[in-house]
Amino acid sequence: QVQLVESGGGLVQAGGSLRLSCAASGRTFRNYAMGWFRQAPGKEREFVAVINWGGSSILYADSVKGRFTISRDNAKNMVYLQMNSLKPEDTAVYYCAKSALFLVTGDVYDSWGQGTQVTVSS
């Protein structure tokens, strides 16, 4: 079973950047689509970005398009989320997750990390 551990969160001023990392265990990592989701206090979890197994297909939420970049390194079992031009509304706990399907719906993701907090001050 693939286990996921996120890192890289922190406190940053608006307009700043952070790079989140997600380390995956297991030899089957490269078989799965990997997604990033976020959940702000009092709000529902929302999709951020997803990348397919080979990195050739990527989708972003409209709210982060042009500012965030998802990538993966299958040799290292890693997936990344580069976040630029951060806004206070990006403040949330960010989770990486794996899915057999290249979809934006959280319900199809069957393994989740513990999350990493991102706080953007104005």
Please, could you describe this protein's structure?
With 122 residues, this protein is mainly beta. Strands 2, 4, 5, 6, 9, 10 and 11 form a seven-stranded mixed β-sheet that branches. A four-stranded antiparallel β-sheet has the order 1-3-8-7, with no helix packed on it. It has no helices and eleven strands. The relative contact order is 0.32. It has strands at 4-7, 10-13, 18-24, 33-39, 46-51, 58-60, 68-73, 78-83, 92-99, 109-112, 116-121. Helices cover 0% and strands 50% of the residues. A hairpin with a 6-residue loop joins β4 (33-39) and β5 (46-51).
User: Share of helix among residues?
Assistant: under 10%
Q: Tally of extended strands?
A: 11
Give the quaternary arrangement of the chains. Answer: single chain
Q: Per DSSP, what share of the residues sits in E-state strands of 2 or more residues? A: over 45%
Radius of gyration: 13 Å
Structural class: mainly beta
What composes the largest sheet?
7 strands, mixed
- C-alpha end-to-end distance: 40 Å
| Average pLDDT over all residues | 95
In sequence order, what are the helices and strands, one letter per element? EEEEEEEEEEE
What's the short story on this structure?
This protein is mostly beta strands and 122 residues long.
Give the secondary structure arrangement, pairings included.
Blueprint: E1 4-7, E2 10-13, E3 18-24, E4 33-39, E5 46-51, E6 58-60, E7 68-73, E8 78-83, E9 92-99, E10 109-112, E11 116-121
Parallel strand pairs: 2-11
Antiparallel strand pairs: 1-3, 3-8, 4-5, 4-9, 5-6, 7-8, 9-10, 9-11
